[in-house]
Amino acid sequence: QLSRGKALKDVHGNITMWVGTSTNIQEIKALDEQKDYFISMASHELKTPITSIKGYTQLLSQKYKNSDDAFLNNALKVMHKQVETLTTLVVDLLDVSKIKTGRLQPRKSKFNLSNLINEVITEISHIHPNNKINYVGETNASEIIADEEGIRQVLVNFLTNAVKYSPESLDVIIDLDVNDNEISVSVTDFGIGISHANQARIFERFFRVEGKNEKTFPGFGIGLYIAAEIIRKHNGNIGVRSEMGQGSTFYFTLPLL
Ligand code: ADP
């Protein structure tokens, strides 16, 4: 049982009544399991048509790349952007199923992290051209051994959230630090921030900060859950520092082999 109580007091401050709500944890668990089942079914069904639309969008862009038809060019740009968003969403949904069944395993290879960061910045800047993403710190890092697609996903999640949850501030900073034992990457925004109580919960599956923000910013509350799982599989650390109304810094570390 999860219970929340509030004491009602008389004028002398004596407690006269307790009012409370209690939620059965069993019910919450069953609901999460239903969500997991639905996610697994839906994401598998969505994967094939989205892959096909993505393929044809690329073919069309290729075929009409020299066209001076403004309408066509704009339509292709919008389609490309939206199909990328859909693909990311479906990959995330599939990953939730994989985590639940222990099938999310890192596929490690050697790659250059600075190059990957630059690629992801280009990708996000394309989708959010008004934001300014500043890459500071080590911009010429040597190669590391890790799951490149997994690390890309974490970077995309951090940067997308940084942009999404700072509607009034366009600046984002991404910082890479390398020392003898580990590398650390942080993404800082100057947006709405997260209360200390919620900071402890945002890496949970389906958790979203409640209230006005929940309706203003669309999402499923799974991006950080997946990011945490990916970093955990690399024996790294993931976390957040934040102050309400001032902004947030999300970071992860990876041990160097
Ligand atoms: P989603 O953004 O789809 O809800 P995430 O798992 O990526 O899912 O994030 C979980 C929750 O953490 C978000 O719903 C939001 O409330 C909070 N959050 C994440 N990143 C930020 C950020 N940069 N600033 C403020 N709140 C954030």
Automatic annotation (TrEMBL):
Q: What's the name of the protein?
A: histidine kinase
Which domain of life does this protein belong to?
A: Bacteria
Give all residue intervals belonging to the Histidine kinase domain: 41-257
User: Which segments constitute the PAC domain?
Assistant: 1-37
The portion of the full protein included here is: 513 to 769 of 769
- Per the UniProt record, the source organism is Pelobium manganitolerans
